[in-house]
From TrEMBL:
<feature type="domain" description="FAD-binding PCMH-type">
    <location>
        <begin position="38"/>
        <end position="204"/>
    </location>
</feature>
<dbReference type="InterPro" id="IPR016167">
    <property type="entry name" value="FAD-bd_PCMH_sub1"/>
</dbReference>
<dbReference type="Pfam" id="PF04030">
    <property type="entry name" value="ALO"/>
</dbReference>
<dbReference type="InterPro" id="IPR007173">
    <property type="entry name" value="ALO_C"/>
</dbReference>
<dbReference type="GO" id="GO:0071949">
    <property type="term" value="F:FAD binding"/>
</dbReference>
<protein>
    <submittedName>
        <fullName>FAD-binding protein</fullName>
    </submittedName>
</protein>
<dbReference type="InterPro" id="IPR016171">
    <property type="entry name" value="Vanillyl_alc_oxidase_C-sub2"/>
</dbReference>
<dbReference type="InterPro" id="IPR016169">
    <property type="entry name" value="FAD-bd_PCMH_sub2"/>
</dbReference>
<dbReference type="GO" id="GO:0003885">
    <property type="term" value="F:D-arabinono-1,4-lactone oxidase activity"/>
</dbReference>
<dbReference type="InterPro" id="IPR016166">
    <property type="entry name" value="FAD-bd_PCMH"/>
</dbReference>
<dbReference type="InterPro" id="IPR036318">
    <property type="entry name" value="FAD-bd_PCMH-like_sf"/>
</dbReference>
<keyword id="KW-0285">Flavoprotein</keyword>
<dbReference type="InterPro" id="IPR006094">
    <property type="entry name" value="Oxid_FAD_bind_N"/>
</dbReference>
<dbReference type="GO" id="GO:0016020">
    <property type="term" value="C:membrane"/>
</dbReference>
<dbReference type="GO" id="GO:0080049">
    <property type="term" value="F:L-gulono-1,4-lactone dehydrogenase activity"/>
</dbReference>
<dbReference type="InterPro" id="IPR010031">
    <property type="entry name" value="FAD_lactone_oxidase-like"/>
</dbReference>
<dbReference type="Pfam" id="PF01565">
    <property type="entry name" value="FAD_binding_4"/>
</dbReference>
Amino acid sequence: MNKRTFLKTSSVLLTGTMLNHLISCKKAEARTNWAGNLTYSTDNLHTPKTVAELQEAIKSCKKVRALGTKHCFNKIADSSENQISTAEFNKIISLDKEKNTVTVEAGIKYGELCKYLDDNGYALPNLASLPHISVAGACATSTHGSGIKNGSLATAVSAMEMVNGNGEVVNLSREKDGDEFLTAVVGLGAIGIVTKMTLDLQPTFKMKQVVYQNLPMAELEKNFEAIMSGGYSVSLFTDWTKKNVSEVWIKNKAEDMKDMAPTYFGATLATQNLHPIEALDPINCTDQMGVEGPWYERMPHFKMGFTPSSGKELQSEYFVAFEHAYEGFMAIEKLNEKVAPHLMITEVRAIAADDLFMSPFYKKTCVAFHFTWKQEIPEVMQLLPLIEEALAPFNPRPHWGKLFTLKPSVLQARIEKLPEFKALMAKHDPDGKFRNEFIEMNLFGEA
């Protein structure tokens, strides 16, 4: 079925004619990503409700990309021809209490899944700062939380189902498929469109969260690892203006946080709830002050119950090996006068090494330098090369879903398992249906 046929089909469906075997394709106003900085290049949005409908849609398209919760700031999910939304794939399929796993559809949001798990006595190992993102989208881009012993969200995946470029249903598992599975989990939407994932679980637990203020940067030189190891999850926030870390967020299992020390490496315990940007109202932030609560209401920085505002920000993030954490921090600090005027906040986190081929954390524990920028696109895009140059001695990798300007040749040279990934792309997408501008430029470009 070609594009013209799809458009006709959409019109028929809207008039109420029952053609359930066809896929809906909405021709609508220009659509944007979550932040509003990117307008998608097509108005052809397919919204299948079943795997069979997804197969039919993929077979019908010459070019297509999966679209999750639209939280990526770059063109990774963009397409000049067709997008397929996973929004209708949002159900919990099964809970296996013998294997301690849960199987969910690809489009379910973490915030929708977590209470169900907790009610049944389970928890996920980690969560990102926002619980509003989809499981498959987060794993495909190696999205992460923090914790020097915690892997990215993708490390919880033990099995997955996808529809490949031929329209075939493919099932892969850690147990049975070895390197092919390890290659496909962080798939960038380039191997297939994921329909479901199985996640490893652990017993549920309670958490507490405390925040410390004004940690002197001088403490980082000798104590960076100790500071980042002070809880189950630790985040540092700075705006680079005062030679200090304005806030240290420490999340710990309740049983491991017996008391709240008045100081932490020179920082002082906050006396009220805080937003990562101190001037903002913390009403939408997860509870602090050592108040005990469920793991899923402490691990993210923000509550699921509020709708994140779209627009007014940009994001970029770079990962370097943890042994270079302090040097990387100081390299960025030298740019403070250029960075600070365009920045909302920088967050520094730690992520454990993994064995996923396209993960930035492949075989190395990393520190993440995350920038939430004002939505000043020209200025920010001029700053990114300066940050990349400052971090260049440490071979930084960017977050797959955020803004970066690294030359394709430089990025490719830093991906040890890129040849294996390209081989799997060729196997499951021989016609290049899932190859868009982002994939072509960053994985195949020669500049």
